[in-house]
Write a structure and sequence with these properties.
Layout lengths: L1 E6 L2 E6 H18 L3 H11 L3 H4 L17 H19 L14 H14 L21 E3 L5 E2 L22 E3 L4
Antiparallel strand pairs: 1-2, 3-4, 3-5
The chain binds zinc ion.
Zinc ion binds next to loops.
Length: 178
């Protein structure tokens, strides 16, 4: 089974294991870059890509189904945010905190970035299905790992949930979009 991340005429078909790594490294980057409301909604979308919650091979998203924004400026800014997150993730940002070496994820991130780069966010968000609303934004930040998560679905961030990380349910604080 695999998961498909698509946009325009391109797609990225990842195995379950590769999907988990891809989402983890993107979340680490997004957690440090997020500053505006849309960013925290994208973080919530990432947190929904947890196969332990949603089911193996049951995740993935289509860029055409994002709510990119009402204005040209908002859409350009949202697209730029995703590209900056992908670039930061591909640079190896915080990979040392994963507890494992992420194989091939750099290639997946580069292909994802190329997909986003070539995608034109639609002006009409009528196709936006399943993209987290402002109310569903992942504005909770795990105090232990400084990683975003969406309350109230999860008690901690994805690092807290790792069995070998020991702690279940880190102390949560709330960081608001600046
Ligand atoms: Zn945590």
């Amino acid at each position: 089974m695999s998961n498909i991340f698509s946009g325009g005429s391109r797609d990225l078909d990842l195995s379950n294991g590769a999907t988990a790594v891809f989402v983890d490294v993107l979340m680490l980057a997004v957690s440090d870059l997020a500053s505006e409301g849309w960013d925290f909604r994208f973080a919530a979308l990432l947190s929904l890509q947890d196969q332990d919650v949603m089911g193996r091979g049951a995740v993935g998203f289509d860029l055409a189904e994002f709510d990119w924004g009402a204005t040209e400026r908002e859409r350009a800014r949202a697209k730029d945010f995703v590209l900056r997150a992908a670039a930061l993730a591909a640079s190896g940002h915080r990979w040392s905190e994963l507890g494992y070496h992420p194989p091939r994820v750099q290639d997946h991130l580069h292909r994802f970035a190329a997909m986003v780069e070539s995608f034109t966010p639609p002006a009409d968000s009528g196709a936006a299905r399943g993209f987290p609303s402002p109310d569903e934004a992942a504005t909770a930040s795990c105090a232990r790992h400084r990683v975003l998560s969406a309350l109230p679905l999860w008690d901690g961030c994805f690092l807290c949930d790792r069995p070998h990380q020991g702690v279940s349910g880190g102390a949560m604080g709330v960081s608001r979009p600046r």
